[in-house]
Design brief:
The protein is mainly beta. It has a domain of 91 residues: predicted glycosyltransferase like domains (Thrombin, subunit H), CATH 2.40.10. The chain has 1 helix and 8 strands. The strands form 2 sheets. It has a 6-stranded antiparallel beta barrel with strand order 3-4-5-8-7-6. Strands 1-2 form a two-stranded antiparallel sheet. The N and C termini lie far apart (42 Å). The N terminus is likely disordered.
Length: 155
């Protein structure tokens, strides 16, 4: 797979002037940032990019967070069975990428993880795809439907 480095910038940045252009990488890890800020406004950063077509409308923010995934039924109720341990691998304003050890059979799920700034974060996600990577490793991605506030129920 061929990879290249690109620089991206926020839409609010002023037009580039050749002598004044400076790219800064975001130095705040996802674990340390407020989730609303991370989902709302991603800043310029250097990151490796695959030549595979990008499906998300906005920049993905890489991370590595332990999370719990609870499958939800069509009524928004937890499906019986044990929650799944997953890793949040990247996040953007409208999407999330996760890795897990078993194939994902459910389309809607609650993903719970914690950041230092916000504490517990709960996202209701519609999983769009699941891909086998190697033995005991799958990757899935989905659209963030809702960010639940503390004490808010899924349904």
């Amino acid at each position: 797979m061929v990879k290249r480095m690109i620089v991206t910038k926020a839409a609010s940045e002023p037009a580039d002037l050749p002598a004044q252009r400076t790219a800064t990488a975001s130095t705040t890890p996802v674990e340390d940032g407020h989730i609303d800020t991370l989902l709302r406004a991603l800043t310029a950063s250097w990151r490796p990019v695959s030549i595979v077509a990008e499906r998300r409308r906005e920049e993905r923010r890489p991370c590595d967070l332990a999370a719990v995934l609870v499958p939800l039924d069509k009524q928004g109720q937890a499906v019986t069975g044990a929650p799944l341990n997953v890793r949040v691998r990247d996040i953007s304003q409208h999407g999330v990428g996760i890795s897990h050890s078993d194939p994902m059979a459910h389309r809607v799920a609650l993903i719970e993880f914690e950041t230092r700034a916000d504490g517990p974060v709960r996202l209701v996600v519609r999983l769009k795809w699941c891909r086998f990577k190697r033995t005991d490793l799958y990757e899935s991605g989905g659209q963030i439907l809702r960010v639940l506030r503390p004490g808010e129920d899924v349904a």
